Amino acid sequence: MGLKMFARGAWRANFQLFMPPEGPALPISTLDYAASTRLSRASTCLAHKHRVYVGHDKMSLTPDTRQTVVPVMEVLGLQSATMDDRLESDVTSPMSEAADDVSSTVDHAGYEGIDWNRLPGYSISKRRKRPRTSWIWEHGYDIEKDESGHRFWLCKTCHKKRTAVTHIYDAASTSQAGAHMAIAHRINKDGPMTSQGKKQRTLLDMAQLDSHQPREQALLNAFVASFNPARFQQLLVRWVACDNIPFHKLESPYFRDLMAYANSAVIESGCIPTHSTVREWIVRSFERQKGVVTELLSRSLSRINISFDAWSSRKFTSLLGLTVHFLDDEGKFRTFLLGLPRIEGRHSGENLADRVSDIIHEYGFENRVGYFVTDNAESNDTCLEYLGSELGFSKQQRRLRCCGHIINLVARSILFGTDADAFEEDCQAEKEIQDDMKLWRCKGPIGKLHNIVHWVQRSGQRIEKLHKLQSIENVALNLDDQTTYDVVLDNATRWNSSEAMMERGYQLRNALDSLVQAEVTDWMEYVARRTQNGAKPMPKRSRKKPAIIDDRMSVEDWSVIAEYLAILKPLKIATKRLEGRPKEGKFGAIWEVLLTMEWLLKHLEDSKVRHERDEEPYLRIGCNLGWMKLDQYYSLTEDSPAYLAALVLHPAFRWSTIESQWADHPDWLDSGKAAVQELWEEYRALAVEQDTIPEQPTVPRKTTDLDLPPGEINPSIHSRCIPAKN
Fold this sequence. Notes:
By secondary structure, the protein is an alpha+beta fold. The protein is built from 27 helices and 13 strands.
């Protein structure tokens, strides 16, 4: 799992930036393959009496041949090839018109039946005596080009039949020769193809070609050469890495049948790897791009800023993901995933520092390290202390805190109080379902709603009843949208799952009330039967009262849920705004952090006042605890001058904004100005290339949700429901 996540991130962040352009492979003469190592593969051209030649822009066909070639290639989805200028001189006819009609055949061991008059410039390979393990040599001659000594494979069957086009393939790769044998002669590494193999649709079947006819043989030759195994491998690796495809899926016989149906050359050329082979391909692909990324890092205009986090997979494999953020030499913002190493042992600060340091030195930017963005775990503080002592920077100044994680802690304090972590541990401990529901019920309306949605989800019959109740409601309201919905389950990891549970629960409150009420009615009828309408005590051997009855929601409970949604809505907006990659100087830019915190603090202060006189203390206490948690982390932003510097250097804000925000705290303003001045002096002496980044026109700042008073932001509650029943 770790490797695929690593590879997928690497492909998305790195490889797609340097992927060779799409397009057909470079064509090459059927008799004269270039020895240039700059070409990644060789294609064929058609050259004999049908006068099919390769030009610079497209295949040049005579009218009679074009009518055959073009439609077939369009059917097969093939593109006409283009010719590299360096190969133009190498395009020659496979049979010279001036060749002597007399065949001077010289037989040597393994070269019986070869006609050297048809192969000017070629000779017996000097390396023929070396061991040749590939099966294709049983069906081909080992020859070489005299001038270059480059080695080629010549199809024996086609040569002896004196076909119009001589099939010669570069011996450096056996894939095209193997594809030719499979398509033209129905032979693979196991010998003649079996009846099962003949059922596969080949290029001959698709185009209805007869390989014994010269013109159709020429077309087949073009089709075989148009398949580039190297390009196919590259695309396959990208698909597996980016779409998180399990490696073993490539060994599925159904997948292989699909590939064989599309093009049998894919299978016969061995382009579908095993699970271990595709893993090696991915690793090699990553290693090939590492040098390019290292070069980009070395030429960056900014320091290399780092974000990292550690976690454990479902199989309890500990991993550390490290991503870098910087401006490249053209002033473009870049984000690369550099590593996903495994962590052995505890997630201690020292252990994390070792892994982070290894990646920094591997890419060679230890002298250009900038700021670090991590969550608020204490182990990260320890990690940065070790790195600071090694690389020579102040941990406090370079340590930035993930604002999304801060908002998560604030929301959890609002929802579950000061002991949110202890509450989670109690819920995760093994206990009876009724005990777990009792624990949640202590949390008020949120806990009761949690119990209801999990109770619904545990039974297929209850889910079906929930949808039927929604359908009845939709018909009663005569709604155009008759869609019904499932409940949304919350989890103990992210607060927004609780917010989503409450929003969906509020939307379905009438159906949920009816479902629980049915349980209440059923229980009351059962009690009446067992006690004869209260005339007798309840027998000892009676069924237990369903725990869900105690979780029945009242109108007041649903009102509390609606108020929670209103309180959490700005936190959701802030999270969405800050979790993205910065675009046009916003959506995750560091200048937004202080303004977002100020905005949320004001929102929580107003909410606390609004619920000060509530009979139930849930909302008032939650708002107060959330405000205290946010204020704690707002104070910690003073440790790093980066937050304040980013805001005051923004042309739309400058010092005037912070002066108005901190009017009641002149000491904050004085210390902040001193810290920003010190940071400015650090950069002041650096040389600046004036023309490095083109000047951009000033764009007026657009109004966003952060500019709206929190009271004007309403929760996204569906109000179409029938008034809730008690």
